[in-house]
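Hi,

I'm pasting everything inline rather than attaching a file, because the server keeps stripping attachments. The sequence lines come first, and each chain or strand is labelled.
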Amino acid sequence: MPSINRSKTKTPMPSQDPEERSRNFNEVALGYAKEDAINEAMRCLNCKKPTCVEGCPVHVQIPNFIKHIVEEDFEGAIKVIKETNNLPAICGRVCPQEEQCEQRCVLAKRGEPVGIGRLERFAADWEMQNGIKVPEKPAPRGKKVAVIGSGPAGLTCAGDLAKLGYEVTVFEAFHEPGGVLIYGIPEFRLPKAIVRQEVEFIKKLGVEVKTNMVMGQVLTVDDLLEREGYDAVFIGTGAGLPKFLNIPGENYLGVYSANEFLTRINLMKAYNFPETDTPVKVGKKVAVVGGGNVAMDAARSALRMGAQEVHIIYRRSEEEMPARKEEVEHAKEEGIIFNFLTNPVRILGDENGWVKGIECIRMELGEPDASGRRRPVPVKGSEFVLEMDTVIIAIGTGPNPLLIRATEGIKLNKYGYIETDENGKTSKEGVWAGGDIVTGAATVILAMGAGKKAAQSIHEYLQNK
Amino acid sequence: MFRILERKDLSSSIKQFVIDAPLVARKAKAGQFVILRIKDGGERIPLTIADFDAQKGTVTVVFQEVGKTTKELGTLQAGDSIADFVGPLGEPVDFPHHKKVLGIGGGLGVAPLYPKLKLLKEKGVEVTSIIGARSADLLIMEDEVRAVSDRMFVCTDDGSKGRHGFVTVVLKELLEQGERFDEIIIIGPPILMKIGAEITRPYGIPTMVSLNPIMVDGTGMCGCCRVTVGGETKFACVDGPAFDGHKVDFDELIKRLQTYRDEEKIAMEKYEGGKCRCHQ
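And the predicted assembly:
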């Protein structure tokens, strides 16, 4: 067997046939078999100065774990990953590797980078199939930390602190932990069984998870610090408040925020209705407004719920679209129709208040705006109507006000997100924050990176307290 | 799991549960609500907090069996448990400088009205109440409301108890007789709140209503419960559920409540074992 694979392209990952998968919720990408993984791992040059590691927000020791895969030591591989990453099965599936580790891979200069995400997923899945090893519990430090929110930031922070010997409680508003990993990202991209296993791993580290706890309402940050005996608090409540377009007709029946649409399907399992009790209504023709990962998730979910025609409406061009390339490719393969440089003007309804169409205007690209992307400007007189019976708004989210408004003395920025230093420390003594509630809607891995940094900073603080 | 400590049948279709939920009880205030889910696979439904006792750690909810989930809830007995019980949610109400208030509750709306009147009474406010229902059988919490009212009117649509007619008839009479209030609270079916708010509007009396749109999470993250108030979109779960009745777009609320009418029928027929005709 050769020790190096000089192929310029990634070892292909098997996936479900587009025609078939567009009607089911099973995972699209099927993962590497052992041979695929070893073959791909042999593409890694094991660079002396691994730039890929710098591209990873949680600094997974990438060449090191890949070397273990080449040697068929999969247990060693996952051990290396888990030194810095508590949720590898999730990251391997939903990280935008093309903008992070893989972008920095030297092979990317002359061809495709090493499929780092695919290899991470392989190692994590291998462990799940072969029994998860829980590290030995460290000696308890006798100090308690509360983590608010059980999304990627909260779970990472909780896991790291538990590994350091702290008594950690995670408070989750919903009936099931996982945050956006459960309510937002669909089953076909991130199976919920995987999320549950990762949460189980965090629990096995000694973390207690309390569900049904809408923090700010049932307990405040001050309650935790003053009455409940916590020595520090980490806020990872995400950016859960859906934004609407503020155009006429947005409250017609059949108009959803992507959050509502996806929550009904993912968390409440509306695809099983009436076996489960929560319904969702999906018409024959569905428009999804927006160009991010959430828009792709909503569009592909609508298709799987039985829609005949699903449109993405995005005001800029394909180049500016923020969604992961892989998700866009998958959406195209499944038959999602993309309307670029198109902006909704108003939503049209019938006499009973149901959506019947969406009026849009054509856009053209002008000068670059603050984000560096060329600003879309409307083309006068180019309005047209797309007939639709469901409209899903996926143009982003803002900070949820519930906890923030109940937390005195915490400084916010002008957009209403929590202000922190580079380690996640807020203006309030003993309180840290990280993830989307600090940065605005971003990625799973960035939230994890923030949770990690905050855990380290909390550790330093509590050692000196 | 959350245990049902007491069950009381207020009518053939309206039930009252006292739930063991100390954390919710400790923070609950008048005007707030809870979301509950009976079991895995169940839907999350909002229910008003009809009463709470921080010391005993209990929360009282009142519900009418109108759909699959409330029917199923109605089969539970004292000693049974429900999977999830989340709250207190929504903004509490406050009546900072009030001296004289009129509270109107129609049908199930008497339940959310009661804690507000109780709060007013505790603050020494003069309370007049009008409560009503379709018939005497459906009239709820009469004794509780009387205990916190200086004056109480009872109405039924069919005349089987108290005044024959709608609660809004008494409202109109009081206002026409020259009675004035610092605030009027109207809670009941959307159409009742709409008509009531129209009656008080010409008098310029602040009118509070409490809205009951469809919700999923109840924490502001889905926007399903959005209502138009004064031309602006509000989320009833975090901005409400109490709003200025003179500013609410009730027609939109009434329409939006119909969103899942077909699905509600399907769920109900499946639950009751009847043959679902929707797919024929």
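The mean pLDDT of chain B is 94.

If the labels don't parse on your end, tell me and I'll reformat.
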